[in-house]
Amino acid sequence: MSKRNYLLAGVAVIVLVLGVWWFAGSGTAPEPSLQPAEAGKAAPGILPVDRKQAAQLGIRLVPAIAAIEAPIAVIPAVIQPPANARVAVAATFPGVVMRTLVVEGDTVRQGQPLAIISSRDVLTMGADLTRANARAGVARSNAARLSQLAREGIIAGARADEANALAAEAGADVAEKARILKMVNGVGASGTYTLTAPIAGRVTTASVQTGNPVDGTTAPYVIDAANRYEVVGQLPERLVGTARPGMTVLIEPDIAGRVTAVGSTIDPATRSVVLKAEIPAGPGIIAGRATSMSLSGPAPAGAVSVPSGAIAMIGDKTIVFVATGGGYAIRDVTLGGSGGGSVEGQTVLLSGVRPGEQVVISGTSALKALALSR
C-alpha cells in the first residue's frame, strides 16, 4: 500500500473516534433510568399502585356514567293504598260468625273464603227457595197438561196461555231466590253464607271473631289491593316549583315509584303541599307506615352516577378513587341532592369525576389506609 493510502486510512480512523466521542458527550443520548427510590415517587394526590398490588388489594373498577336524575330532597311521607284500591267486605245478612278463615295481615286471592256466617235470613231464604221450586214444578206440569188439551181442542187456548204465564212467573221466582243465595255464597239447608274476598290483596282490617254478631251495617274485613300502594308526602314550600308528576321517588329499601300529583295549595301550618306517588308492593311496604321519600329530578350537566360503594371519607372530605396511569387519584367529590345523592344503589356526583372515568368500587378501604399512611 502506498504512503498516501496509509495517510487516508489514518485520517478516517481519527474522524471516526472524534465522532463517537462527540455523540457520547452530547444531550441526544438516552437519559439514565430512575433509581428505585425515585421510581416510587408519584404526583401529589396519586397513590402509586401497580397491577400486581391492585390484584392483591382486591381492587375492582367500573366506569362513571352520565347521570340522568339526581335527588332533590328527602321528605316525610306515609304509605297508604290508593283511594280505589281499598275494599270493605260487608256482612250481607245479619247473623253470627261461625268460623273465621283469615286474620289481619294475610294475603288473599280473589274469591277466597274469609268467614262463615250463620244467618236466620239465609235459612228462611233456603226454605222459600224450596217452596218456590215446588210451586214452579206444579205450575210447569199444569201448563204442560193444559197446552196438550188446547192442542186437542178440548179447552180454549187462553187457558193454556194463562197456565204457561204462571209457570214462567214461578220459574222467575225460583231463579231470583237462587241468584241471591249464590251471590252471598249461601247454603239454604244449613242457613249459612260465606264472606269472600272481592279482590286479591292483603287483609288490613279483620274486626270479627268466632261467636261475634254481624249485621248489614258492618264491614268485618277491609282488603287493600295487592301490588298497589300510594305514598303521600309533605313537600316544602321552597320545592313546590321543582316537583311535577312523572318524577322518580325512592322509598327504602330501594322501592322506586313515580309522582302522580302535586298539590297547589300550601298548608299554612306546615308551609308545605301534598305530594302523591305510586309505588309497587315490596319489603316493608305496609299501609299506614310512616317513612321518608327521596324525590329525584333531572340531573345537572356534568353530573355522573357511580355505585355507592365507590364513596369514601377521608377526614371531613368525601372522595372517590379514580384509576390513572400511575396508580389511583384521590378526587374530592360533591354529592348530588340534599338526600345524599343515593338512588337505587347508585350515587350521583355533581363534581370531581367525569363520565367514562374508572372509579374504584372494591378495595377502597385498602386505598384509604394507604392514603392515610402517606
UniProtKB/TrEMBL annotation:
| InterPro entries in alphabetical order | CzcB_C, MdtA-like_BSH, MFP_Cation_Efflux, RND_pump_MFP
GO molecular function (one): transition metal ion binding
Can you give the residue ranges of the CzcB-like C-terminal circularly permuted SH3-like domain? 304-368
Q: Where is the Multidrug resistance protein MdtA-like barrel-sandwich hybrid domain?
A: 87-220
- A Pfam family of this chain: CzcB_C
Cell cycle as a keyword? no
- Keyword list, A-Z: Transport
Q: Name one GO biological process term.
A: plasma membrane copper ion transport
Q: Under the cellular component aspect of Gene Ontology, which terms does the record hold? A: membrane; outer membrane-bounded periplasmic space
PANTHER family hit by this protein:
CATION EFFLUX SYSTEM PROTEIN CUSB, SLR6042 PROTEIN
Q: Which family does it belong to?
A: Belongs to the membrane fusion protein (MFP) (TC 8.A.1) family.
- Protein's recorded name: RND transporter
